[in-house]
Design brief:
This protein has about 230 residues and is mainly β. Helix content is about 0%, strand content about 55%.
Amino acid sequence: MPITFGKDTLDEGEFAQLLCSVNRGDEPLTITWALKGDVISSEPGLTTTTLGTRTSMLTIQSVGYRHSGTYTCTAKNRAGSALQTAQLRVNGKLRGEVNVINEVTGTGWIYMHLFFNILGCFEYVVSLIETPSLMPLTFGKDVLDEGQFAQLMCIVSKGDEPLTITWALKGDVVSSEPGLSTTTLGTRTSVLTIQSVGYRHSGTYTCTAKNRAGTTARSAELRVNGIWLRD
């Protein structure tokens, strides 16, 4: 399936993730990652994680300029190899001080904490609690064939923790069942997996992220082609 960071450009310090899923091909499979042609190995702040036998996830806890470039996921089995690429562009931060005067902003809430210090003097601390921001959801293709493997990754790229991430299908909360599961990865990501899609899985899937400042949701449509059986 195509791999994507969800946005063309990320801001320095944002959380980023790529999910590489092999929806067809015989096992055993080997999945590897590369940046600008160099093989990626896990390091502080950047990790690759194997999920089952057909999926690998690359995670960057806080993107910086050194993470910019073209990422390549390569899947290989005895029959051959295939690859997908995604470009990561990073905006640098403007260093300096900012005076906040709004009590409510478009991206979160500003909390003012009032207290007396040990000398009995009145002090206050102002903190911004940012509402969640989600990467776009995608199944990689507009339509999947019945029996194919499918996966959605819901990533909270911005927003203060703690976070709660939930899934819904056609408005009804999704809970794990045989062949369909939701998995929490760390504190900012949830993955919905369908081992073999069928007509009953068709519909609009919604991922909702919530924290103290507010709620944000993203949706993706799953369309399934049925298999025509001859008499």
